[in-house]
Design a protein that fits this description.
CATH class of the largest domain: Mainly Alpha
Number of helices: 7
CATH superfamily of the largest domain: lambda repressor-like DNA-binding domains
CATH architecture of the largest domain: Orthogonal Bundle
Largest sheet: none
Helix content: 55-70%
Number of domains: 2
Structural class: mainly alpha
Shape: globular
Order of helices and strands: HHHHHHH
CATH topology of the largest domain: 434 Repressor (Amino-terminal Domain)
Length: 112
């Protein structure tokens, strides 16, 4: 599956975020999906441009998420008001560490 460059960047950021949230190292995830030790590193840095569907499914299974979670399709059907309300709930409950993490993720997307 070849992704548009912006979609690819979002996929890489989402994969990294979900992997880190689960406390899984790149090498361990690579092993769980039956790939070389540096496969996930190459995915997250964009050195691998095309993600086969079977690999996407194995990544989702290994991280206990859906393929949609990895492809970040959530929010496409929500109104701007619903999205703002969801973001505000996240921000209200976030500590300084989480706020910095959100900020860094926004920078990746906004400054691309």
């Amino acid at each position: 599956m070849s992704l548009h460059p912006l979609d690819g960047k979002q996929f890489r950021a989402r994969l990294s975020l979900l992997r880190n949230a689960k406390g899984v190292k790149q090498e361990d995830l690579s092993e769980k999906i039956g790939k070389a030790y540096n496969y996930v590193s190459r995915l997250e840095t964009g050195r691998i441009k095309t993600v086969p569907y079977d690999v996407l499914a194995r990544l989702a299974l290994a991280l206990d998420v859906t393929s949609d979670d990895l492809l970040f399709v959530e929010g496409l059907k929500e109104t701007p008001e619903e999205i703002k309300a969801r973001i505000n709930r996240w921000l209200e409950g976030a500590d300084a560490k989480k706020l910095r993490e959100y900020y860094r993720l926004l920078l990746v997307v906004v400054e691309s």
